[in-house]
Amino acid sequence: MKDTDDIPALMAEIGARARAAAAELATADAGAKRAALEAAADAVWQRRAEILAANERDLAAARGKGLTPAMMDRLALDEGRIEGITKGLRAVAAQDDPVGTVIAEWDRPSGLHISRVRTPLGVIGVIYESRPNVTADAGALCLKSGNAVILRGGSESFHSSGAIHACLVEGLRAAGLPEDAIQRVPITDRAAVQAMLTMTDTIDVIVPRGGKSLVGLVQREARVPVFAHLEGIVHIYLDAGADPAKALKVVLNAKTRRTGICGAAECLLIHRDVADTIGQGVIRALIDAGVEVRGDAALQSIPGVVPAGEADWGREYLDSIIAARVVDDIDAAISHVRRYGSGHTDCIVTEDDAAAARFFARLDSAILMRNASTQFADGGEFGMGAEIGIATGKMHARGPVGAEQLTSFKYLVTGDGAVRG
To answer: Is the pLDDT of residue 1 over 60?
Structure first.
C-alpha cells in the first residue's frame, strides 16, 4: 500500500496521466483494444492463484471487521468467479467497437451533410466498494469505449483489486496501449475520493458503485458530473393473474440466488386475490429456504412471518431478508413502488397482458421485468459482456452501463463550399 503525505498532488498526477492517455485512446485501433482485453483475460487466468491469495488477505481482514455474510459474499473470489471475470473480459473484447459509430446522418437543403457519431467521454472516475470484479468490468468497458479510467476501489478489496488491475495493465502493455489508460488509486485514504470529486480539469464523469452512503456522498459533494447508481430496492409484484409455478420460481431465484447483489429482490407485493393461495405458497417456500420474511398484518398468520415495521419498506437488505405486503390491486402495487422504490429494477409476475402493460407504462424504473428473476439485472445478462453499474438517473446512461453508454456523440458536418445566406 502506497502512503503519501500529499494526496492532492498524487491525484493531480494520476489525473494528468489519465488525460494524456485518453487523448491516445480516443483514436486507438479497435484491434489493439480487443487485443489488450484478450491479453488481460489470459493474465487473469494465468495469475489466478495470485489473485486468490490476494483475495484471502482481504477476506481475513474483512472477517476481523465483522462484515455481514452478504458483504463477505460480494468480496469473495473463487476459481469459478475468476473464470467469470475472464469471460466478461473476453465478451467485452468481442463486442463491436462503439467509437466512431454513426448514430444518424442526414442531408440539409443548404448542402450540408451531417452525421452524429459516437465519441469517448474522456476520463472516467469509478469509485466502488467491496466487489473486486468491478476492477475488471470497469477497466474493460472504459477501454473498449476509448476512455481512460481512474479506479478507486474500497479498502475491503484493496489487495484483490490490485492483483486484477495488474493483469489489466499487462494487457495494455502487450497491445502497445498506454498503461495509464487504466489507473488504480494506490491508497485507501478517503481523501483520495474527495479529491476525485473535484477534479473537474481531468475527470469527465464519476461513476459511484456501492451502497447508499457512498452514492449519497458522491452526489452531494461531486463537482464532476455523476452517473447515479442508487441502491437496489427491488420489488416483485404477484398479480392476480400470476402463474403459481412461475411465481414460486421467479421469487425464490430473485431473493436467494445471491442476496448481496443490487438485483436481489427486497420487497414482495401480493395481490389480495391470490394472497391466500399463491402468496402463501411463495412465502412458505422463502421461509423454508432460510429467508426471514417481514410481513404486514395480512401475512402475519403465516407461521414464521416476522411483523414488518415502517422501516422495512424501501430498505435494501442485501441479506436473506425480504419485506412482504398484501395490496388491493395493481395500482396499489404501483403506488407502493413509486413511494418506496429506488428506480433500479421492478418486476411483475402475471399472465395478464393488460396488467403487464399497465405496470410497464406507469412505472419508470431503469429496468422493468415480467415473469423473470430480477437477478438478471446485470450487464452480462443483457448481452453487454459486463457493466459498470446500474444507472438509475434520467441521463443518457440508464440501466446497465456498458461500453456504448460510456460514449457521448459529436456532429460531423461537411459541405462543398456551402455558405449561409
So the answer is: no
